[in-house]
Amino acid sequence: SVGEKIRLSVRYMGIPCGELVLSVADLTTYRGRPVYVVHAHAFTNRAFSLFYEISDTLTSYVDAEGLFSWKYIKEIHETKDDTRVVYEYDHEQGVWTADGRHKGEILPFTQDLLSSIYYLRGTEWRDADDTIYAPLNDTKRNYQMHFGLERSRNKRMNVLGEWVSARSGRPVVELDGRYKMIGTNEVWFTDDHRRIPILVKSNIRLGNLYAKIVDYRPGRAAVASNKPDSGGER
Length: 234
Prior knowledge:
With 234 residues, the chain is mainly β.
């Protein structure tokens, strides 16, 4: 929903290192379609920046009805990297472009890394163990995302001083017929209509990352739900 902001505190190997902020900035139009403009900003704190500084921003134009991506901007500002890439997804022609130069084919209703979070939040969840599927494009390559939701067992978690029902899932991607875990190994959401990401546990090559919600500001209206005829793939 427009105006929603979710702030998570990030720890690396148990040491506070920065924050991740997810926000829904606007409801506008793109290519004649209503879209949500959503952002993810990850940044290191002052102490951690002495060793390695990160200030990365992702922006996605998410179709308000189908919850798939039309445009994706990656702005990476790190100690060893400083790049900006703009991806555009032409679903009518079935192609993606990067900075207007590189081009490739996409499957219908393809997601980017950021829009996939809002697709997961907006699509229907079954009560039993469930797997949500979606085509994904990133780093100029196509993937198939599988998000395995564990059965809801009335798991209760303390979120900002309030005990809420929660449910976890694990993302896996398929590339060239092979399946592999991506950075995040487990994500916890509130098990209600808001589906707020409240806890992220990630095992990466250089150690463990742990992100926990520390602030939540609701938006002004409900996020658009996925409809059976919107093209979302399950």
